Amino acid sequence: MACVSSLSLTLIASIFIVCAPGRSSGHISYSIAEEMEEGTLVGNIAQDLGLSVQQLSARKFHLSPDDGGRYITVGLDNGVLSIRERINRERLCGQAEMCTIPFEIILENPLEVYRGELVIFDVNDNSPAFRESSIPLQISEAISPGVRFRLESAEDPDVGINTVADYAISASEYFSLETRRTEEGIIIAELVLEKSLDRELQTSFQLEFTATDGGIPQRTGTAQILITVLDFNDNPPVFEHDVYRSSIKENIPQGTLVVKVVANDLDDGLNAKLTYSFSGLTSQRVHGVFSLVPDTGEILVEGLLDFEETKGYSLDIQAVDHGSPAITGHSKVLIKIIDVNDNVPEIKVKSSTNYVPENAPPGTLIALIDVTDRDSDKNGQVRCEIPQDVPFMLQTSSSHYKLITSETLDRETMSEYKVLISSWDLGSPSLSTNKTIHIAVTDVNDNAPRFAELSYNVYLLENNTPGTSIFAVTAFDPDLEQNSYVSYSILNNNIQNMPMSTYLSISSMNGTIYALRSFDYEELKSFQIHVQARDAGVPPRSSTATVNVIILDQNDNAPVIVSPSGQSGSSAVVNMPQSVSQGYLVTKILATDDDSGQNARLVYQIMKATDPSLFIIGQTSGEIKTARNILESDSTTQSLLILVKDNGQPNLSSTFSIQVTILQNSTDTVTESGNLVGSPEYPSDLNLYLLIIFSCTSIVFLLIIILLIGVKCKQERNITQEYASCSYSYKRGDMHSMTNRKTTMEDTLRYPGTDQVVRMPGLPQYSVCLSPESAKSDFLFLKPCGPPTS
Question: What are the residue ranges in the chain where pLDDT is below 50?
Answer without folding.
Answer: 1-25, 566-569, 666-684, 719-790
